[in-house]
Amino acid sequence: MQVRFWGTRGSIATPGLGTARYGGNTSCVEVRSARGTLVIIDAGTGAYPLGRTLMSSGTKNLRGHILISHTHWDHIQGIPFFAPLFAPGNVWDIYGPKGLDHSLRETLAGQMQHTYFPLTADQFGATVRYHDLLEGSFDIDDIKVSTHYLNHPALTLGYRLEADGAVVAYCCDHEPHSSALASGQQDFVGQDLQHAEFVQDADLVIHDAQYTAAEYATKIGWGHSPTEYAVKVAQWADVRSLALTHHDPLRDDDALDRVVDGIKSNLRATGSGLNVFAAAEGQTIEVTPARARPAQRADADFQATTNLEPAATQRSVLLSISDSSIAVALSEAIGAEGIRADIVPGIDEARKLIAKDRPSLVLLENNSTRADGMAMCRALRQTEGDELPIVMVADREDIAAGTAAGVTDWLIKPFIASYARTKIRAWVLRTACNWIRASIPEDEKRRLASLRSLKILDTEPEERFDRVTRLATALFDVPIARISLVDENRQWFKSCVGLDAKETSRDEAMCAHVVYKRELMVVPDTFLDARFADNPMVIDEPRIRFYAGYPLILDDGSCIGTLCLLDTRPRSIDSRDLERLHDLADITIKELRSLAQPSSPKTVPV
Predict the structure, then answer these.
(1) For residue 224, what are the CA distances in angstroms to 11, 24, 246?
(2) In a domain? residue 296
(3) Residue 594 in 3-state DSSP?
(4) Which residues pair with 394 in a beta bridge?
(5) Statement to judge: residues 268 and 332 lie in one domain
(6) Residue 126: strand, helix, or coil
(7) Range of 400's domain?
(8) Which of the pair, 461 or 433, is modelled with greater confidence?
(9) Which of 74, 114, 184, 215 could form a disulfide with 211 if both were Cys (CB 3.0 to 4.6 A apart)?
(10) What is the CATH number of the domain that holds 113?
């Protein structure tokens, strides 16, 4: 991949003599794969000269993609001045973190309201498509993109791009989850460990490094990293090259040189082979792979572009906070995100509420004089397991005790409301991702017409179909087999062995995923699959743990449903069984085809 920096400054643009070498424009990075796929990461003021360069190339019908890390102005202020968005014939896809209340399009369009700007986003001449992102992975042509929430007062995504065997990671506007790690007093654990794992083995990491360790001591909670932390992350993750970015607007070129020289001196003294440099506007880097890597992700990887239904995010957050002022502040932060706060005084009430309506998140207070959050966390882990995220609100971190008790994350007092809201939002969205509704097929209108033309929906059971499901349960030794037909808002069972239900919601239907992909889907253990771990059919009766579904595709190409196998225990399925499932699906399709064919007229003797 080829990487070019167009903006490297943080917080506010600072063009001038003192920033001429490293640049004064705010964050903007251009990435191109060998095939020519164009990806722009962030659109600060550096997007303006990039846009002019793209337009001057004379390329017609320009195709590009913009990844927005978050919507603070120093990362989006170049969008209204990005000329390719106003050129008819161009096509741009813009991606950014999904909030609970506003879409990416609404947020970006906000800075182009009449009060701030003479043109609106509706006046873009190019075709512009917006994509809300969660944590997960997706593809941009030949580039695999993975996303990861960073630690910042606004919901912020880091990006990992993989193409041509090379890996580039971008983590801008991020600070250590643990301040002790920033000062070198702690190893990587918890969320800091996950951050380091996100960039592991990358050929180039572009990382926030706005402060030095000495400066960071008075900037905790501002959402930015000290250079020493960025270096420590890169060393732990076995990164080849580290580009320091989001340079402090108060730091001129000479001061930045001194910071980088100090880092390089320390690396030489320790014998480290890490290549560290300060990113500079106009700098171009050819990123080549240093090691062989697996190219593709597993089918079960969570799709970052998944459209979460509002119901998935409108779950509760459980609070057990003894400090009334903190309880009020957190309740207001939760309410501002459009979700419900349930306040409980102790463990018994917490267990009752969890049993009634499992929350997305638990916030506990740990205070030596008022509340023993550690004890409550241990008690919840004994009954609720490790899946429920628990954030500890405290005056200081105690990583060792927190790890032993099962603490997921920390919220250290004092905190600003926006920081609390962001942490709450990230965890609620993570929890909601454990139940993914299937996307709607592109041929949905035709598919539904083909299904309904069979006139099979809501008909009585028929032996020719029941015979197939009976054989399936016997052949595969599963308790449940179904011929499932996916309608507009439901899946209806023409035949079902092992369950009394005649239909379920399409939102709950695993078969809807098969209909969307039009291919066999096998889930050995639903608990370990991000698409289904919180599906009502998994966490409630019949508690499905295994699923295998084969698509039922008509002659016109419409996938109308599945022949599926289900079990209440995890299991595997071998290639011979898959062939048998294919055979039974073919028998089912043959019977469905007969419904679509007009019957021959009867011969009447004369």
Answers:
(1) 10, 18, 9
(2) no
(3) helix
(4) 366, 412
(5) no
(6) coil
(7) 310-432
(8) 461
(9) 215
(10) 3.60.15.10
